[in-house]
Amino acid sequence: MTGAHRAALAAALLALLPAAASAHGGKVEPLPYLEIVTGGASADAALPLIIALHGRGDTAEGFAQLFRALPVPVRVAILRPPHPWGSGQAWFMEAQAHLENRPATAVELLHLAHRVAATADEIRAARPTRGRPIVIGFSQGGMLAWAVAVAHPRAIAAAFPIAGFLFPEVLPQIRLDARAMPPIVAFHGDADPLVPLGEDRKGIQALAKRGVHAELIVFPGVRHEIPPEMRDKLFMLVRALPR
Question: b/e string for 41-75 if b means 16 or more Cβ within 10 A?
Answer without folding.
Answer: beeeeebbbbbbbbbbebbbeebbebbeebeebbb
